[in-house]
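Reviewer comment 2.1 asked that we show a complete input and output for one of the modelled complexes. We chose the LYUYDEPV case, as it is the one discussed in the main text.
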Amino acid sequence: MNIAIGEPDANFAHLEKLLNDAVAGSPKPDVIIFPEMWNTGYALDRIQELSDPDGERTKALLSGFARTHGVNIIGGSIAAKRGDRVLNTIFAWDREGNEIAEYSKIHLFRLMDEEKFLHSGDQLGRFELEGVPAGAMICYDIRFPELSRKLALDGARILFVPAEWPHPRLHHWRTLLMARAIENQMYVVSCNRVGTSGTTNFFGHSMVIDPWGEIVVEGDESEAILRATIDLEEVVRVRGKIPVFEDRRPHLY
Ligand SMILES: NC(=O)CCC(=O)C(=O)O
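Response of the prediction step:
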């Protein structure tokens, strides 16, 4: 998804169109994910006025969409206002439109000044999606392997990662996502924005990676709806083949 910086109305309209295109395609998706901070982009100097109070506008659109179309939604992340604080928050809904997760980005990214304008979350992104233990992290969070390992130890078999990750760090993005999938032997489902904000170019390359580290699908730098089918039994097979979780020796490190 491309994102119009500082224009929530345009982004809501654009997202709704993409969602309608996604459910019109075949096969009908079980889960939809989109990028980080899709409502505002990194309009941080105006984030107090632009952010969504308690995520209410986002919830009204996405809970209703999930229910109407019988689809689970990992709602990218949004700038969400809590009192006088703004957090970078993922909400998720099940097929009945029930909210099933809320996670606010723990690691704020100084290179994009997040820490000057946003508050960090203090809870992990653990949830269940139709009985499947899952985890959520946001963008810069993938540089902290302890976080995904903790989610994996807590049972996550699939990790969702919305992002706004720009050039020139494509190599980091691809390598870190693959490492998180391989080391934790779980699926990684990532969605990174495309397009330009000022002088910053976002490269997309959203990816679904399987627990063996193979890329199931990868986008390019253009806006697109990517589809992938995953087999969660693959997590069990890979963990059986190389029993990393049994071989850990955490008392030594
Ligand atoms: N929005 C982000 O957290 C960007 C993280 C990023 O670009 C990185 O290199 O890390």
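The chain has one domain: 8-252. We note this here for comparison with the apo prediction described in Section 3.2.
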